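Notebook entry, structure prediction.
Reason for the run: the old model in the group folder had no record of what sequence produced it. Starting over properly, with the input documented here first.
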Amino acid sequence: MVAGLGAIVFDVVGQSVTRFTLTQFAGYTPLEAAGEHARFEHAPHTFSPWILVAVMTIGGLVSGVIVYTFAPEAEGHGTDAAIDSFHNKRGKMRARVPLVKTITSAITLGTGGSGGREGPIAQIGAGFGSWLGTTMKLSNRERRIMLAAGMGAGIGAIFRAPLAGAVFAAEILYSDADLEADVLVPAAAASVVAYSVYVQSLPTEIRFIPIFGSQLQHSFVSPLELIAYVVLAIVLVLVGMLYVKSFYGTQKLFQQLPIVPHVRPAIGAALAGFIGIGLLQVFNGDQAILGVLGTGYGTLQVAVTSATQLGIPLLVTVALAKIATTSLTIGSGGSGGVFGPSMVIGGCSGAAVGLTFQALFPNVVTEPEAFAVVGMAGFFSGIARAPISTIIMVRALTGDYGLLLPTMLVSTSTFVMSHRFRLYQKQAPTRMDSMAHRGDFIVDVLEGLQVKDIYQRDRKVTMIPEGMTVEDIVHRLAYSNQHYFPVVNSDQKVVGIFSDNDVRAYLYDESLWKLAVARDVMTDNFMSVAPDDDLNTALLRFTSHDLDELPVIDHARPGVLLGMLRRRETIAAYNQRVMELKRESKEEEDVPAS
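New structure, fully documented this time:
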């Protein structure tokens, strides 16, 4: 519910900032997607490019001052901060982060900064989930799940895509083909509720239609098109590599500036604004080029419905310039997401490729706009390392289910080819590499080994009759390297055990040497293991009583001692098995594909 309400607040505040800054003073109202809802009437004003730059600069300055004064972790695109909190901070986020992120992201995007909505709303939902988990005194694991569920709920609400939000929350945490399965069901439930809350704020006529409208019904008509889609995948990988390198290169440059961080977002926003008005002059006042600012969804709407109207030069320029403006806006410390710009970059790149193939092979490629839709999914799939959720997300945003085959081809291709670079730097490769799962795989390995595989059956064990006096025991210990001694009855069945430390208590009272016997020294309520027990069970018994050895007793023959299992043998077996698994994994990676 909070994620849904947060999405409403974020939407209202962002549009309010746009209405009373960009529209009021610069005379500029950004183009919107077909399914977006304008909450304010935008009265016509004279457009002033230079005031547009001024508004963006002031917006960047205000955002930077708020962020770096109250919550520096709210800078940037937000999703990485949530991922980092999940893996490395036990799911903890400061309670003020959602509030700061809501305000600063609304200011950044509302004043024309190039960014998306998913990062802010993801951090808003994640922050509240973390706070709720802490308030309810949940375990670290449960708090992490709450954080991820909140992140998925925010995504599901703001994009009106609850299924995509749930899968995104589980998939975006890892850069390889891995998934946080425990997150799926809670995130799905939270996403459904958040979505249901958010859509109540929209007019009935657009409440349940996709953001890019319900008219996108492209079709896949020929297998020959798949060749063109493979080319599209290669183009998207190259553009994705440029995007990631530009984004983090710009971020590094701004971090090295010898100025207080509070003003860096203002510099980035100003430079992004200059790029926007410069391109506006180059393209003779065509405001579609201003898709390089803000979310850019209005320009993307044209690309997915009538790409010819924009043309290849403008589409290519928007894709490349969007990389620059997003890098400047967010990389400088401004607050906003990177999913939205990725949709614009991928969609415009795809539309340009589609128009190119239509010009060369008009009988094969008949709908260049289809390449824009597929490009949206394929681009983000590669750089975000999230092919499944991205396919679902783009289908939900466009309502276009006729392109599932080429979308799957392009998305999986970009995912495979983009493994050397990624947009979210805090992703762990797999669950095995995540601090959140440290210890999980120790148990997995230990459960795969049994006591009978480890203990040494041929090792001679000194057993003590239950009637042996302490005096005889002392002499027996003098010639033994054992530390733990099983005590047996007349039938040679183990009835107890004692350690050499237990005997020391009797050494200072010689009067007891001939009176006390092994039964007085031993512990009859002792821990043991069976041959078929796994090593995880054995290790738990070692640690729970701080023991170094455990008797191995056959359950089929109660009391019959088979040997002794040592703690160091158990740890050595675990280390050896881990090394074997690593070696097997490396050998599999080194084997060339046949």
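Summary: The chain has 23 helices and five strands.
The old model has been moved to the deprecated folder.
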